[in-house]
Amino acid sequence: GAVVSQHPSRVICKSGTSVKIECRSLDFQATTMFWYRQFPKQSLMLMATSNEGSKATYEQGVEKDKFLINHASLTLSTLTVTSAHPEDSSFYICSARGSGGAGTYNEQFFGPGTRLTVL
Amino acid sequence: LAKTTQPISMDSYEGQEVNITCSHNNIATNDYITWYQQFPSQGPRFIIQGYKTKVTNEVASLFIPADRKSSTLSLPRVSLSDTAVYYCLVVINTGGFKTIFGAGTRLFVKA
Fold first, then answer.
1. What is the pLDDT of residues A73-100, one digit of tens each?
2. Measuring CA to CA, how many Å separate B111 from each of A22, B11, B83, B87, B108?
3. Per-residue pLDDT averaged across A45-49, rounded?
4. Which of A2, A48, B58, B98 could potentially form a cystine with A102 if both were Cys, beta carbons 3.0 to 4.6 Å apart?
5. Which chain A residues have a beta carbon less than 8 Å from that of B93?
6. Residue B107, class by beta-carbon neighbours within 10 Å (0-12 exposed, 13-18 middle, 19+ buried)?
7. C-beta contacts of A36-43 below 8 A and 24+ residues apart
8. How is residue A59 annotated by DSSP?
9. Do B103 and A44 touch (CB under 8 A)?
10. Of B98, B105, B108, which to mutate for an interface test with A (greatest number of A Cβ within 10 Å)?
11. What is the pLDDT of residue A105?
């Protein structure tokens, strides 16, 4: 199946700093990318959906000024957690939906996740 | 948005067949049903997807009745390594593509 990578796999930062997480589709073009957050023992919560070249659509309750999403190309999306605080500590997972080729129209491929710890 | 309901947890033994049923009463005409598996600290892994009737691949089968208000994931002979959380999702394909995760089912396979 198609591969989605995330970088870094884990990051520790100080409160008040910003952290950028990259999500890449390695062998297919991703027309749509999704960002999820998962707290321990909980399910994944959709944060936002982004289409290449356009602004992300955020889910209700997700602060767009705090979680900046950029989807500048068909293979790369970034999530920047600005002015991070300890409550932002979580497991962030991206996924990508292909436009065809390696990905089926209705299938999402998930990245391995990024563990963010804010001290 | 179509909401899914599935058992919170299930226990099984190695070699047994496991069936996990999910209800999605307000699934829309264009929506697909997809199941994912997730291990701790990893991203979800696609298992199977279907629209109606039965779908089978090398790891699982998916049974969807005619009314599509529920679906059942069948894992033929589980092993210890199948211990994971299994998510039933309705892939919303109307007014934009979106996937919303439900609570998932924690499957624990015992020796």
1. 889 999 999 999 999 999 999 999 876 5
2. 39, 11, 11, 23, 10
3. 93
4. A2
5. 106
6. buried
7. A36/A92, A36/A93, A36/A94, A36/A95, A36/B101, A37/A90, A37/A91, A37/A92, A37/A93, A38/A90, A38/A91, A38/A92, A38/A93, A38/A113, A39/A90, A39/A91, A43/B87, A43/B101, A43/B102, A43/B103, A43/B104
8. P
9. no
10. B98
11. 52
For residue range A34-44, list pLDDT tens digits in order: 999 999 999 99
Residues A84 and A13: beta-carbon distance below 8 Å: yes
**Angle at CA A24, nearest 5°, toward A23 and A27?**
155
Q: Does B45 touch chain A (CB under 8 A)?
A: yes
pLDDT in tens, A48-67: 998 888 889 999 999 999 99
Can you tell me the distance from the alpha carbon of A75 to that of A100, in angstroms, rounded to the nearest whole number? 13
Each residue's pLDDT tens digit, B27-71? 888 888 999 999 999 999 999 999 999 999 999 999 999 999 999
CA distance B95 to B83: 35
**Cβ distance of B103 and A43 shorter than 8 Å:** yes
